[in-house]
Structure formats: C-alpha cells, structure tokens
Write a structure and sequence with these properties.
There is one protein chain. This protein has 310 residues and is an alpha/beta fold. The protein has one domain: Ribokinase (UDP-N-acetylmuramoyl-L-alanine:D-glutamate ligase), CATH 3.40.1190. It is 34% helix and 23% strand. The chain has ten helices and 13 strands. The strands form two sheets. The protein has a nine-stranded mixed sheet, sandwiched between helices. A four-stranded mixed sheet has the order 3-2-6-7. Helix 1 packs across helix 7. The two termini are 24 Å apart.
C-alpha cells in the first residue's frame, strides 16, 4: 500500500443538452459520457492514471452497475476494498456555461463494517468525509503513524469537525464555507484552529486561497483557459485532489505550492473534457498544460518519470 483513499462510489452519467425536459417533453442530448464518480473515488482514479496505484475503500452493490465499477477499478490497477450496499449510486450531470447541474441517487446505508486494513507502507490518506466511521478511524490511525492525511471538504459531513483534528491538508469548497456560515478567509482561520497544517478553499475560476506551513495566506489564480474550451467542470476538484496526493507521493520534498501548481494543471486538463474518465490527465498532459499557459515547471514530475509515463 502506498496510499489509501476512502469515499462514496457513484456511476456518473454526464450529458450535454439545451435544457431538461419537463412534463411530457422529450429531448436528445448532443453528447454523453458514462464514468466512475465520487470525490475521493475520482481522486483515486486520477492518482492511478498518474502511475501510483492506491488502495480504495468504496461501497459496491451486487448489481450490474457495481460490476461495472469493479471492472473500472481493475482496469486502472486500483486495489479495491469493497463495502457492501444494496444499490449502486448514480449521478446525472448536465454541464453548461462553466456550471454543472447534478442530480444524485445515493445508497449510503452500508450493510457491513468498513474493512480494517494493514497500513504498512502507506504514505498518504485521502478522504472526502463519506463513510464517516471509516474516515475518522483511518484519519486517527494515520495521524498516529505519521502518515499524511488529506481531506476533500466538498461539503460538511456528520463528523467533519472531529475529523479535521486529524487532518494535515484540508482543501475545501466554497459550498463548505457556506455550510459553516463563514467567508473563505474566515474558513482558513477555522481550519487553522482545527490543527490543519495546510488549508485552502477552492474558488473555481477565481483559483485557490490557501495557507502554507508557516500560516501565511497565499492566492493561486486559476489558469487563464479560454471559456470556449471549458466543457465540463464537474470532477475538476476531485482531479485536483488526486493530483496533489500523487505529487506528494512522487516527491514529498516539494513545497506545497508546487504540489498545488501540479494539481491546478491537472484540473485545467479535466475541465476541457466531458466526463471524469476522459478528463484524467497523464503526466504528459499536465506538462502540455504547463507549456501552453506558461506555468512554471518546478512542480512537474522529473523528466525521466515523464518519459516513462508517455
């Protein structure tokens, strides 16, 4: 085990359409994609695509969608540890004009306890707050073992306040700030108060506001991608998380600014593609984003690793 991800499994159906029909209407989408979904789940697939194959604790149902997800995980070399549920969870996603409307159908009634794994060799944990019992259990274990702990705070979960006391890197969304009734700046103070060594708030097209190991607040503007090239922003944050976990595993000595630069390029690649699978970048894709947008290359993977991945 090199890294452990814990989250909620979805099958995402992403489609492009002019509008959602109502009543007895029908409409035809111009394009669609079917893929894996879920915050930490998509982050795990991203890390695997970048060449480090993590372990993943995720709910899987004994239905045809569950079997499809198991096949997806095997294709990417993920070490999947299943937690049984009755039905697979679905997301229906409609991207438009840089936004995305989402309808979720979720089964999070777990039929068994979470699997208890041997963490020997593990160097990073990434959670999204789903499976709150497993998230808290492994966050405590990893903190005690000196393993980096990371949280995708896409939303407030049942035990987020407690879990944060065991988190090293907490990157949350604006929705999280709204749920705790704080501005992004005040949210950074909140994360500091919970003991998070690195904290940040993703602001979409406005970039990232975050603080480093010294507590200094920094701003990282979004890369200036032309609006007409933005196809699907859904999953961009998940790819961002998976990419910075990969960057940390690849070289823990890099500064967190470099990890986040690398992740920002990965997310920039994602938003140009429809669906999560098509939006997973390779190392070569991330380097291409850096070259196109004149981003500094200090955070990229060493040339030998880039060549191997290509």
């Amino acid at each position: 085990m090199q890294a452990l991800f814990i989250g909620q499994t979805y099958i995402d159906v992403t489609f492009l359409a002019d509008h959602i029909p109502a009543g007895d209407e029908k409409s035809v989408a111009s394009e669609y994609a079917v893929s894996f979904g879920g915050n930490a789940v998509t982050a795990a697939f991203c890390c695997a695509k970048l060449s480090i194959k993590p372990d993943l604790i995720a709910p899987v149902a004994p239905d045809w969608l569950g079997r499809m997800f198991v096949e997806m995980a095997a294709k990417y070399g993920l070490h999947l540890h299943q937690r049984k549920v009755d039905k697979s969870s679905l997301s229906f996603i409609m991207p438009r004009d840089g936004k995305r409307a989402i309808v979720r159908c979720r089964d999070d009634h777990y039929l068994e306890p979470f699997p208890e794994l041997d963490l020997t060799g593990c160097r990073a944990l990434h959670i999204d707050g789903h499976q709150p019992d497993a998230a808290l259990h492994y966050a405590k274990l990893c903190r005690q073992a000196g393993i980096l702990t990371s949280l995708d705070g896409g939303g407030l979960r049942t035990n987020t306040h407690e879990v944060l006391t065991f988190i090293d890197v907490a990157i949350v969304a604006e929705r999280f700030c709204q749920q705790i009734d704080k501005t992004p700046a005040a949210t950074l103070d909140y994360l500091k108060s919970r003991g998070c060594r690195i904290g940040g708030v993703t602001l979409g097209e406005r970039g990232l506001i975050w603080y480093d190991e010294t507590g200094e607040v920094r701003k990282m503007p979004a890369l200036a991608i032309p609006p007409q090239r933005v196809r699907d922003t859904s999953g961009a944050g998940d790819v961002f998380h998976g990419a910075y976990v990969y960057s940390y595993l690849d070289n823990p000595q890099r500064r967190w600014e470099q990890h986040f630069q690398f992740a920002q390029r990965a997310a920039t690649f994602k938003i140009q593609h429809l669906g999560n699978e098509a939006g997973l970048p390779t190392l070569a894709d991330i380097d291409a984003v850096a070259r196109e947008f004149d981003a500094p290359t200090a955070g990229s993977t060493p040339p030998a690793r880039r060549a191997a991945a290509g």
